[in-house]
C-alpha cells in the first residue's frame, strides 16, 4: 500500500506540475492581452491626436493669412524672377498623410499659364535655391539659421542667369547677414563676377 500511495503521489505531483505550467502559460497570455489592450489604447490616442493636428494644419493652410508664409512667397517670387527672368509661384497643400507639401510652378508673365520649365533639372535646382534663400531672408530678424549650402548651383545655367544668381546672392548675403556656400565646377564659374 505504501508503494501504491507513493505512485499515486508521484502521478498527482506530475499532473500538478503540468497544471501549474498550463496556468503559467495562460497567465502569460493574459498579460500579453493586457499589453496589447494598452498598446491599442495608446495607438487610438495617438491617432486621434494626429487627426487633430492634420485638421489644424488644414485650417492654417485654408486660412492662408500667415504673414510669414506670404512674405516667403513674395521673396521667393522676386528671387526666382531676378535669376531666371520668369515668374514662379509657390504654394502648399496637404498630402494624403496630412503632411505639408510645397508645390512650385513656373508661369508665364500673366502668372496664369503654367509652363513645363520647372521639370528641368537646372530650374528645379534654382527653385530649391530660391526657396531656401526666401526662408532665410524672411526669418533674418529672428533667431534662425543664417547659413545655406548648395551643391552645383551653377550647373546648366546660361551665363546671364549665373551672373544674376551670383549678384543676387552677394547682395542678399550682405543685406541680410547670411553665409552662402555653393560648389561648382571650374568651367561653370564666370570670370566677370
Q: What would your notes on this structure say?
A:
The protein has helices spanning 2-63, 67-84, 121-138, 159-176, and strands spanning 88-94, 100-106, 147-150, 179-182. With 193 residues, it is mainly alpha-helical. The chain folds into two domains: 1-63; 65-188, 3-Layer(aba) Sandwich (Rossmann fold). The chain is elongated and about 110 Å long.
List the helices and strands and how they pair.
Layout (H helix, E strand, L loop, with lengths): L1 H62 L3 H18 L3 E7 L5 E7 L14 H18 L8 E4 L8 H18 L2 E4 L11
Parallel strand pairs: 3-4
Antiparallel strand pairs: 1-2
Helix pairs in contact: 2-3, 2-4
**Adjacency order of strands in the biggest sheet:** 1-2
Class by alpha and beta content = mainly alpha
Strand content: 5-15%
Known CATH architecture of the largest domain:
3-Layer(aba) Sandwich
CATH C-level label of the largest domain: Alpha Beta
Keywords:
193 residues; 2 domains; 4 helices; two-stranded parallel ribbon; mainly alpha; Rossmann fold
Provide a compact summary of the structure:
With 193 residues, the protein is mainly alpha-helical. 60% of the residues lie in helices and 11% in strands.
